[in-house]
Amino acid sequence: MAFSLDLKVPTFLDSTKLSGREFQTDTVALEKKSLNLLVFLVTGISSISKPDKKQLAMVYCYYTRRPHRFFFPMSSQIQLLVALLLLCSVALGSAFSIREIIKGGKRNDESAPGPCPTWHPFQCPNGDCIPIKYLCDGSPDCSDEYDENQSMCTAATRPPVEETASFLKALLNAHGKDFLVKLFGPKARNELQGMGGVDQVAVALSQSPTIETFAKEMKLTEEETARLAEILDAIVSGSTSELTANEAADFRFFVQKLQETGFF
């Protein structure tokens, strides 16, 4: 990005032209003018949000290439003060806060949040980064409370959606494309097409906190929901009459996971 330094030179500096006599007889006044000049230049640097080496070099050239206007003798005390002023200007321009680091982006760069650091790896929708341990702990940390989103927190306790989808597909391949009608009812015919397909059902099983939430999303009737709950209970207890022993065994591990996470 191109940079242009627009420093408006004060009148007292622009009109300053010193003779050799002035150099010899008015040292204090000259040093005051030198100090005023450097304060002016440093103010110009400090107004830049993030000065880089190129910008500082341009300020330096602006000063050194005008000896007839801007060169004054400086004592060691003034030189030290100048160095401190320049150092402070750089520090002010490049200052940062821990908040900016946690956000994952650079200071004054709000357009595109960067990746979160390893010690705060979860990024909230607004760009803030928080520790993994703060997720689903009952206390919102994201400004929109996304870290306590019920669907997300439920999914964190269930098998991954990809594994659930693979499991359902394996059941259909092993027992037929209408096999899951035994669990979900007529809508599950033809590989769950009436329920949105295998992937949609896998997502709902992953993020639905309860069987009622799942039934509402899948548009199951009250009778279908009650029947599903009975079959799931029977699978866990090993007393189902709707499924063969082998079919129930195929289901048991997954159904136990649903039970442990409050699905039914």
Automatic annotation (TrEMBL):
Family matches, as Pfam families: Ldl_recept_a (PF00057)
Ranges in a coiled coil: none
Stored Gene3D superfamilies: Low-density Lipoprotein Receptor (4.10.400.10)
Keyword Phosphoprotein among UniProt keywords: no
Disulphide bond pairs: C124-C142
Transmembrane feature ranges: 78-98
Domain of life: Eukaryota
InterPro entries: IDLSRF-like_peptide, LDL_receptor-like_sf, LDrepeatLR_classA_rpt
This protein's UniProt keywords: Disulfide bond, Membrane, Transmembrane, Transmembrane helix
The protein's name in its UniProt record: Prohormone-4
